[in-house]
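ok trying again, last paste got cut off:
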Amino acid sequence: MVDHFPNHALLLTGYNRSKIYYNDPWTGKKASMSAKNFWYHYSTLKWLSGSKRALSY
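nice, full thing came through this time. structure:
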């Protein structure tokens, strides 16, 4: 939950073997996270929802 909202979306802008790059519309900033962290969150979301939806964190 981000600022009392249950959903938060990111716009993926690029990637390489070690990092995922994205824009965060909530903050208006460019950021990155490790590919390992991205796939962890993606896998958790897929398991919880039973489908592929937008990634939240």
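cool. The first helix runs from residue 35 to 49. The chain has a mean pLDDT of 78.
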